[in-house]
Design goal:
Mean pLDDT: 91
Protein name: Tetratricopeptide (TPR) repeat protein
Strand content: under 5%
CATH topology of one domain: Serine Threonine Protein Phosphatase 5, Tetratricopeptide repeat
Oligomer: single chain
Organism: Streptomyces echinatus
Low-confidence stretches: 375-395
Largest sheet: 2 strands, antiparallel
CATH superfamily of one domain: Tetratricopeptide repeat domain
Distance between the termini: 62 Å
Number of helices: 47
Helix content: over 70%
């Protein structure tokens, strides 16, 4: 750290410290610089150092330190106002507002002192000739804080009525305060409307839209505008995160998490800022923070998570329940201190209401990775109707059996769970009739899969004992299918063949019904389908053909048996639908995709018609896949929408995530980015619910980030992509997905002005793409990284990246981007000391490369390369003219301008060869040449070029903005040339 030896060095040091992150380190440096300023013995140096110290204290957690430097500044002003220059005079009066707000934030400052200070501010502003606007704004803050609503309304009206002047807060800050008042008065819609110009970027400052975004969260939730609230959270938290002084806004984001079912993310936010629990420099923001900590941790306790470890004040571990008690006590004590000072209960009332809030949304998916704090609710079977009388088996058992049978007979999703409830109420079927015990064993077997074979046999024995031989055969057939699923296909087929013969004979003798017979026939068809897949897996073409023929015949047999049979029984219709789906699968295996899709559609439709839409989902997904393969994105979209609609709450979270993600990809392919983003968001949410955050969830977030980027929502996209990259890996997701995420994130950061970070992301992507056989992406990413490095002011690094990109473009035969990389290097060189010669040589190389490529180009590429050559000549001219300003001799300047004119003239000629396609390029170059002619003292030539531009657009309307601008500039050039010619005539006459 260099020693401060003069005023200029001090000013440089103050400016450097202003650019440092908010916090104690910056504050400590400001204190050192004040000591250095005092040693210079220059009053203005001390004044500027005090002003700097005051500013860094204000934008930190040590706001309580502001009062001492301000008191000293005020004393210096009163004693020697002539020591203050214009800027410091303005600054001194400006920070009066900070003092009034700062006093309100400190409960130990008496209210009488605050009021006295307000009067002092009004007096000094009047003497200085300032408007009352800032004074009335400060009075409004005092009245609003203590709860004097009548006075607050009067001050609010007077504040807005007073003229804006140099002491008024910026538009963005004023609109924030005005909207906050409307929200406090219960006028949320009015608040959001007032904030709109800030939210849309019309007004901004160092701390806006940061605080407006935070303040808008709860009002938007109350208005039901949850999508906007989510967007404001993602966008706003990114702005607030690095700024230590914004604890109040940070608290708004924690509150948002507590009100939207995002408790886990709220805990992540607390963990990021441990100092916020204990920083005492601004008690009012600490009060707000502790209030929302109470809200969040008490919410966790309500969810049964009171014993969960949570981040809290350093020095010990905390459970949610313990932190809730601590935070409530802290918030209550702080509120009481404010209320004692104010003589009202206003602050305490507001804080108690804030801590008592209930969630406004059960769960609002955010898109970033978040582990759910509490288990997600699942769709549960409806409880059985109350039983009118008990049985020997105990009260309610017969009702459980009746409900389980109802669910299984109608193929409802929760039938197995209902039979499990029966099993818990009657272990081993104790107390149940034989038929009921058979059904219980049958469904327990279904739930156990391969481990349930013995239970299928038990069920069969009990069915036979209950006098239902057909259902006994069906149970054994189900057991045979389970064996096939376990890989014992041949043994299963041998078993089911015997059962098949038995049931058909029994059915022919009217010893069983269609339902039981269809169950056996369907089990046989399922096993034969397993044989098809087994043969296909072995690659045995002959066996596969035979197996396929047998399976198709079996499926058709099922349809023939059940079609049109069943009445109110939905099972025959379900069998027919499943059999058609088998035929669809077989058609797909033989390469008949069109027939496969049609049969899957019919199967899905049959399930929906039978009132069993949840069974349609699997087949609608198949339809979507086939449609996608055929390039029918509209058909894929219809099928996936149907799957989501029909699956409803019965699809497992991972299935929902997959459906939403597939639909997002289809919609993205159809360029419906808005809705695609919504489905990608849902996919990320359900992946988190399924415990697949790091796999399926990361992929969904990657896609969501891309869709948000396409919609121009760069801050949200950046948050989501950063979250995705924490989990994306080449092994799991493929290096293409990782490269694309880094690429998109770099694009977002570039749009947000974070150029160094953008370069980092693009370089990471380029390094991964470096190993790909196709080098187009590597070249593009290297070029983009160079742009970001240049925008970040890292000239040397940018030049190396452009050099690397140029080599890649050359190897790819891409002359256009090779030329662009050379031009970019030329401009970088011009910015270096003694860089003009290198800059000219690089630009000359760009011209040569373009001319060489154009000479060998195919006719299809000539127009594009000609436009590139014209643009290169034009840029060469600009570079020559700009470099001339660094030359010392007039002759050198004139020579540079002549060389620039030559390049511009060449640009005109090149663009002229393009006809109408090069019109705007030609006229732009013509005007540039005209101004150079004027600078070189040739007004007649300048006027001729201006007239050439006007002639080029003769008969063209002004609807085109470029045409309008070119005409206006040409007219301006003509006037300047005429004035110069007149002056020349006068000189000659003299």
């Amino acid at each position: 750290m260099s020693e401060i030896t003069d005023f200029d060095a001090l000013r440089r040091a103050l400016a450097e410290n202003s650019e440092q992150p908010e916090g104690p380190a910056r504050n400590a440096r400001a204190e050192q610089l004040l000591a250095e300023a005092e040693r210079l013995d220059v009053p203005l140096a001390v004044i500027e150092a005090l002003g700097h110290q005051l500013k860094v204290y204000n934008y930190s957690s040590e706001k309580d330190k502001m009062f001492v430097p301000f008191a000293r500044l005020l004393r210096m002003w009163d004693e020697r106002p002539e020591d203050f220059d214009e800027y410091e005079t303005h600054s001194l009066h400006w920070v009066f507002k900070w003092m009034s707000a700062g006093m309100l934030d400190q409960p130990h400052v008496p209210l009488a002192s605050v009021e006295k200070w307000l009067g002092e501010m009004e007096h000094r502003y009047r003497i200085a000739g300032h408007s009352e606007r800032a004074v009335r704004g400060a009075e409004f803050s005092v009245a609003e804080h203590i709860g004097d609503l009548a006075r607050a309304e009067r001050a609010y009206t007077a504040w807005l009525a007073a003229d804006r002047d140099g002491m008024a807060d910026c538009h963005a800050c004023e609109l924030h305060r005005q909207g906050a008042w409307q929200a406090r008065c219960g006028r949320d819609a009015e608040a959001v409307e007032l904030w709109r110009p800030v939210l849309e970027g019309e007004f901004a400052c160092a701390h806006e839209p940061h605080t407006v975004l935070a303040s808008s969260l709860a009002p938007l939730l109350r208005l039901g505008r949850v999508d906007e609230a989510r967007a404001h959270h993602l966008r706003g938290f990114r702005l607030v995160r690095p700024m230590e002084s914004m604890r109040g806004a940070y608290a708004d984001h924690v509150e948002f998490c507590a009100l939207t079912g995002n408790e886990a993310r709220g805990l992540e936010l607390l963990a990021e800022r441990p100092a916020y629990f204990t920083d005492t420099g601004q008690p009012r923001s600490r009060l707000d923070f502790m209030a929302v900590v109470t809200l969040l941790t008490e919410r966790l306790t309500e969810l049964g998570l009171g014993a969960r470890r949570v981040p809290g004040p350093a020095g010990r571990t905390w459970t949610a329940r313990e932190l809730a008690a601590h935070a409530r006590a802290e918030a209550t004590e702080l509120a009481e201190r404010f209320d004692r000072r104010n003589g009202t209960s206003c602050v305490g009332d507001r804080i108690r209401a804030r801590m008592a809030q209930h969630p406004l949304v059960e769960r609002l998916p955010l898109g970033v990775r978040t582990v759910r704090a509490a288990a997600a609710p699942v769709a549960a079977p409806p409880p059985p109707a109350p039983e009118s009388s008990g049985t020997a088996a105990g009260p309610g058992l017969s009702a459980l059996v009746a409900e389980a049978r109802r669910l299984s007979d109608t193929l409802q999703p929760h039938a197995l769970e209902a039979w499990a409830a029966v099993g818990r109420a009657a272990p081993d079927g104790a107390g149940l009739p034989t038929r009921d015990r058979a059904e219980l064993a049958d469904h327990e077997a279904m739930a156990h899969g391969p481990e349930g074979l013995a239970l299928f046999e038990r069920a069969a024995r009990l069915y036979a004992e209950a006098g239902d031989p057909g259902e006994a055969l069906a149970a054994r057939a189900r057991g045979a299918y389970v064996r096939a699923l376990a890989g014992e296909v041949d043994a299963a087929l041998a078993t089911v063949t015997g059962l098949y013969d038995e049931v058909l004979a029994l059915y022919a003798d009217e010893g069983t019904g269609v339902r039981q017979t269809a169950s056996v026939v369907m089990s046989r068809a399922r096993i034969l389908m397993r044989r098809v897949h087994e043969a296909a897996g072995r690659g045995a073409a002959g066996d596969a053909h035979a197996a396929l023929t047998d399976a198709e015949a079996a499926a058709r047999e099922v349809i023939a048996l059940v079609e049109g049979r069943g009445g109110d029984d939905v099972r025959p219709a379900a069998r027919a639908a499943e059999a058609r789906a088998m035929l669809a699968e077989l058609a797909g295996l033989t390469g008949d995709a069109e027939r496969a899709a049609e049969l899957f559609r019919r199967a899905a439709g049959a399930y929906v018609s039978a009132g069993l839409p949840w069974f349609a989902v699997e087949y609608e997904v198949q339809v979507a896949a086939l449609a996608h393969q055929a390039g029918d994105l509209a058909g894929a979209e219809r099928a996936l929408r149907g799957a989501l609609e029909h699956g409803g709450p019965y699809v497992e979270p991972v299935g929902r995530a997959q459906l939403h993600l597939q639909l997002a990809e289809v919609l993205g392919g159809r360029d419906v980015a808005d809705e695609a983003a919504e489905h990608a968001l849902e996919a990320a949410h359900w992946a988190d619910e399924a415990g697949e955050s790091g796999t399926l969830g990361a992929w969904a977030r990657q896609q969501l980030g891309g869709f948000l980027l396409r919609r121009g929502r760069h801050a949200e996209a950046a948050e989501v992509l950063e979250s995705a990259l924490a989990d994306l890996s080449a092994d799991t997701h493929g290096d293409g997905a990782v490269v694309q995420a880094h690429w998109w994130l770099g694009d977002c950061l570039g749009e947000l002005g974070e150029h160094r970070a953008a370069a980092e992301q693009r370089l990471k992507a380029a390094e991964l793409a470096r190993h790909w056989p196709e080098q187009q992406d590597h070249a593009t990413l290297s070029h983009l990284a160079a742009e970001s490095l240049g925008n970040a002011g890292l000239t040397e690094e940018a030049d190396r990246a452009y050099t690397r990109a140029g080599g890649l473009w050359r190897s790819l035969g891409n002359a256009q981007f090779l030329v662009r990389s050379l031009r970019a290097r030329a401009w970088l060189a011009l910015g270096r000391d003694s860089g003009a010669p290198d800059a000219r040589e690089l630009m000359a190389s760009a011209v040569r490369e373009c001319e060489t490529a154009l000479a060998a180009a195919d006719p299809a590429d000539r127009e594009q390369l000609s436009a590139e050559l014209g643009g290169t000549h034009r840029q060469f001219a600009e570079l020559l003219a700009r470099s001339a300003s660094e030359e010392a001799e007039d002759a050198a300047i004139r020579a540079a301008f002549e060389a620039a004119l030559e390049q511009t003239t060449r640009a005109v000629a090149v663009f002229a060869t393009l006809g109408g396609a090069g019109l705007h390029g030609r006229t732009g170059a013509e005007l540039a040449a005209g101004w150079l002619e004027a600078d070189l003292g040739r007004p007649a030539w300048a006027a001729a070029r201006a007239r050439a531009v006007l002639a080029a657009y003769e008969g063209t309307g002004d609807g085109d903005e470029t045409v309008h601008a070119r005409r206006a500039e040409a007219t301006q050039l003509l006037e300047a040339a005429a004035e110069a010619e007149g002056a020349e005539v006068v000189r000659e006459a003299e």
